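Let us work through a complete example step by step.
Step 1: write down the sequence.
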Amino acid sequence: MRAEAIFERVGSACLSSSHDPARNLATEEWLLERFGNPFPAGNSFPAGNSFPAGNSFPAGNPFPAGNPFPAGGSAKVAVCDADADADADAGAGAGSGPEALLFLYVDDPCVVIGRNQNPWAEAELSSGVGIFRRVSGGGTVRHDRGNINWALVVSRNFHDQAAELAFVARAVCALGVDVVPGPRGGLFAGPAAADPGSKVSGTARRFNARSVLHHGTLLVSSDLGRLRSSCRGIAVAASRALPSVPARVANLADLVPGLGVESAIASLARAMCDAVIWSVESIMPEGCLDAAMTRHRSWEWVYGETPDFTVEPAGCPGSVIQVGRGLVRSVTGPGAEKHASWIGRRFDPALSC
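Step 2: predict the structure and record it as tokens.
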């Protein structure tokens, strides 16, 4: 089966009721790991095109009462069953094959860096928002209540970055704006848009043995001023980290006047999803995200996983601090002996002579 055929519509979409960045990042990881594996007993997808009894989206989630889900039929479960997996492993074209899963969520304001990035170099740490490190690569992004985060989880056998980006672009075009895939996996306003060439979505990917997480942002009505001011950090002398590539950005609401986040989520889900739209919390066992959420909030993950870098401390011409795993490993140059107490400490940009 061609990847393009899979990405005509996805079988299921889910929404998060949480705006907690740590929880939503952990949920993406959980879905990536569970995709292609049976869900725990008692935690199955709801049958039919409805929510489980008594389970509905909390107030503030974007699907208004009476939103027309497709009628009839049973849910097209987005987790590969054994037969579908066997077909995929054999490269067979028969059967429906594994389906992609769509996950949508909106976070409270935060800065999210890529797996191989340096938070000190990428984020304004005094901006007052949380800093998080995701498991995928790519550059730094800012989330807020004006930004939609989308994630596709698909079998690795059928992953096709271009087909998936085209699929998301078609759904965004259904909002009434010309959007096209562009460099580095981004989505950009097309030639017919009001601000052609402006970036509206940045993307990244994470692979495991069976599946791929392909996710991204979608700027609807974000605070672009705060985005620019919060996604910049200190200068480093040398670094093994991946730097972000700045781009001119635009909100979809500036290209489609009157567009809001809630209406955009509802329209995207209808454009992308074939059958079932459900709350992601309805299939997650209690406590399944605890360890990942703790990791996402920890200094050891956000800062301690930073690739090695060097920086010149303020007021110390010719001196160099070497940082590894977020800790000061050495200080060299004039007056280095005076700063022996820095060795082993957590790096702080305020260190100075």
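Step 3: interpret the result. The longest helix spans residues 21-34.
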